[in-house]
């Protein structure tokens, strides 16, 4: 796995360029020099290393090679393949560009995807348009395994293209989970195989504002090709206003002692091993008003304890989910309800409420449960869209606790709720602010604690996003070589 | 000027549609009925009335007819012209659709442009895609003559396409002035004929981040075709940081007793009778530090009174501008400086500072000067992008003063400063919030004082903007029939 990178002639003037070690998120170990190697788009190619565990025919990497060629050389198409960078699966993760050789190694194909992104960011152009990469050695790995972005497709419908483009942008920042908050009170855009009436009556429009089975497959496949898992959320028993329109008997499953039978469909349509069950913000006043509910509670011996009923409901769904070999994620509300009724069925809790969120992280990890942190990353909340530093200066492990507790914090998530967000403003609201969170979740905290040091690197990364067609908002006065042209 | 609009057959069910009287901004006098007339895109056309003062060959209206045909019938091209709506210039302003006849009359071609916009908003589609217009009579006119939008192309460069699209959107809300804050401290993108070095050294990039003479002509012509004047601002003597890069002797014209000779170029390149001279936020500390400036002030008898020097400078430019038959507009700072030195040379003052802006409006009009109000419409300031009501509930004449004073308030302006705004986020920040200000500047205040009444109409108008390709941001949970597809 070697690439003959030609040295520049000695008399060539150093071209004007940005700091060539400019990467986002920052790798854990990086050394580089001023030694430059020119890259010729007409002879450049990615290829598999001789000893790589995957070889040509691995559709995931074959496609990634083509994709990253276009990202690095936007004005070129692949011509011939005289000089190559060899990528090898089944080796310790590292990227090396040195002395006329380049190689990218990773334990898994997913690591190769991350490394391709890193390599693509290392390449830069001089003022004449020639491509260069500097001598570089990188060892890298994610700090947290769960690095998510939540999109809400119920409060506003997001066209499939907007979701796919978000997945593109996510991969540029090394996010690996797309949390699809697909339905909620305002609309039910998921076109169910088992319950087609749900979207027929619950979507904003039964034909134009829905996600068909084919749309869902497309999103899952597109995400997978970019190393992103799709975590579906069918939030219940709250946030189900839109469900009732198509299934009039659906909104009271709890006092029947059963659980919505749609669970089976969800586990088969969405292949990820995780499923988000929601469970937040349940309004007990409706249950309280219902004599059937109250009778059921008497029978079960719950008395007037509605959190017990909520816990009973969630426990049922968690058990069904678990019987389908899936791991449940729930919003922190469920953890709070379960304080009195046992938490044995729970496994992953997403902390979202404001205030002392690290107190809650401490509490949940103390109970031995895994945590995903979302509270500090609600990017839809009002505020200037350039306030990235607020999302950067988040310290997920800064709570008193054991090493074991810290290890239970499996990651974090950027949330983009949809009250005031749709395809018209999603991108400048999300990018590059989500990238600030992405670096927090990927990089070493000590190396990335300074907002001042990060700023020029993030500005450069934002220009890279623009160059790739992502409508990332400006951080301050200034310009990019390639401005956004999509208007 | 008549159009045979066919009545719908009696047994036709009333199609589901939004309130057909849904117009933005609201006309001053409107009556309509539930009587519907179908429109056939294949036989529909605009034409000139027999007695119209302008006839075929008026390029402005010929182009407007073609433009509005496409806006009304996005999926059709003009086929034949069997049924016509006749437009007549030189008549009292009104729009009438009734009893199988339709006509649009206006005193000027500009009035026809506004009426075409109104007519285009009257047309709606049923669920099957058929077009309709209801019986309607409208008499309309603008409340204020100056209805502006300011774009700042110095803090971020805006591609020409983004400016043209803004002009489109402006015409949909009946704005009529594009205030082009073309240069400022961060960059000088205007490619001057007389001083090419200014953009060569002062622009972010001398080739890709400039407005050529041809770009400027294109913007002016595109604006004119939509009834919009281009008001250029070359702000001085503050906000000129970028000027000095290309003309090292330019940043101290005051103590030479002269004025920048570029004024002549500006008056010839920009044909509008108004010119904005800036004059805001002058930092005296630089002048104070300069011995030449201090010596000049001694010679002129100004002592240490820097506002006097500033006044002297502005007076010179105002006089030159006036000698070129142009009317000057200045920011309120100049009015404030002139308190001690006479305001005879001033004519139009733009009020922009926060606090009690109506106190300032009162003060300026009391001095007999005209006012443009900008203070309450700084849309670039941080805040949720759906807070349109804040820009709607502005009452420009709610100050104690004479009728004569009120008449001196010639209008208002939405300002979109560029610190954190570029082509990536301009549109969802500007629209439909600017439209809230547009209605305030166009419509009768008493008829448009209720936020609650305006909301569904503005939501409908926002959907119309999306349908026309304007990336207008969402106001709340919901959907449009045609969502934004531009991602």
What does this structure look like?
The structure is a homodimer of 487-residue chains. By secondary structure, chain A is an alpha/beta fold. The first copy, chain A, has 17 helices and 15 strands. In chain A, the strands form two sheets. In chain A, strands 10-9-8-15-14-13-12-11 form an eight-stranded parallel beta sheet. In chain A, strands 1, 2, 3, 4, 5, 6 and 7 form a seven-stranded mixed beta sheet that branches. In chain A, helix 1 (59-72) packs parallel to helix 2 (109-122) and helix 3 packs parallel to helix 5 (213-225). The longest helix of chain A has 18 residues, at 306-323. Chains A, B: Residues 95-122 form the Beta-hexosaminidase eukaryotic type N-terminal domain.
Fold blueprint:
2 copies of one chain form a homodimer.
Chain A: E1 29-39, E2 44-48, H1 59-72, E3 83-89, E4 94-98, E5 101-106, H2 109-122, E6 124-125, E7 131-139, E8 146-152, H3 160-172, E9 177-181, H4 197-202, H5 213-225, E10 229-233, H6 243-246, H7 262-269, E11 274-278, H8 284-289, H9 291-300, H10 306-323, E12 327-331, H11 332-337, E13 348-351, H12 357-366, E14 370-373, H13 389-392, H14 403-407, E15 409-416, H15 426-430, H16 433-442, H17 451-467
Parallel strand pairs in A: 2-3, 3-5, 8-9, 8-15, 9-10, 11-12, 12-13, 13-14, 14-15
Antiparallel strand pairs in A: 1-7, 4-5, 4-7, 6-7
Helix pairs in contact in A: 1-2, 3-5
